[in-house]
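PROTOCOL LOG
Step 1. Enter all chains and additional molecules of the complex.
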Amino acid sequence: MILSFPASVNSPEDETADAELVLRARQGTLPERHTAYTVLVTRYQGFVRSMLLGLTRQPALADDLTQDTFLTAWQKLNTLVEPEKFGGWLKQLAYRHFLHNYRRKQTEQKHQPEAEAVDVVADTQESVATDAQLNELLALCTPLEREIMVLCYGFEFTLKEIADSRGMALGTVKSHVHRAKMKMQKQLEQTQTGADETGSKNHG
Amino acid sequence: MDNKELDKVLKNKFQSLQHPGDDVNLVREIMAQVETLPQIEAEPLGPSSRIGLNWILLLAVLIGGAVFALSLQSFPLEQFTQLLPVNLLGGYTAIAAALIVPLIAVAGLMPVAWLMLED
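Step 2. Run joint prediction.
Step 3. Record the structure below.
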């Protein structure tokens, strides 16, 4: 699977560089390991944070989860069997951190009085995309639909990856995607019709 | 708008999520925390190396079993089998199986145990 990583890591040479950096971050002296890992963090922090921001829609939480993801990645670097797949592994790790945080908040909310309940699901009105229409489309979806659509269309997760991480049946994930797409399609068509009508009035 | 067209439009729209507009640099904070963590241990053998070792072990067990079976030819099995209600071939088979089968089973279970530990 080709990930939409930063341009600097899209070529095969750069994938090799990833593998080399992972190996250097595992072996050698501690400063050498840190130097190699700093390059990896620099390379992937934007991608990971964007993904987590798309999922949480809360910049501060996205920053915290990004830091946690990279700390866990550092601690578990030795368990990565295929170093050239560091990016994909990191992406999965970030999603697991998001899910862990989401479930923890859900549990906390169950044990809190209603008045003190925290928002498990982020404010749907908060914009995270630079594309205004995408924010409108995302606001139409349920939190779960939004999560799946962001991962699937924005960060190229496969439906199976989402189903496995979520512990859901593949068919259920497909249903959510279908429902979200129907809502988005309706909205897009309405916008298109509105734009066409405005255009024809202007011409008239 | 058909499904293919919709997919294309959505993919284009969702691309903007990868550029949220507020470039945040977390490298310094992340590395400051990484540096406070205990030093990661030396790289352990990966599952593939373990499985490789396992095959070597299995081969060693098989060779050992073969050597053992050959050495039985000089063992006074005739006298031994007279004490048991089995014939000569049965005696060889029983002794070999009793020693080799558990070793093969242990060797065979090692990759499974490794994978379980990995999880």
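Step 4. Note key features.
Residues 5 and 31 of chain B are 43 Å apart (CA to CA).
The mean pLDDT of chain B is 72.
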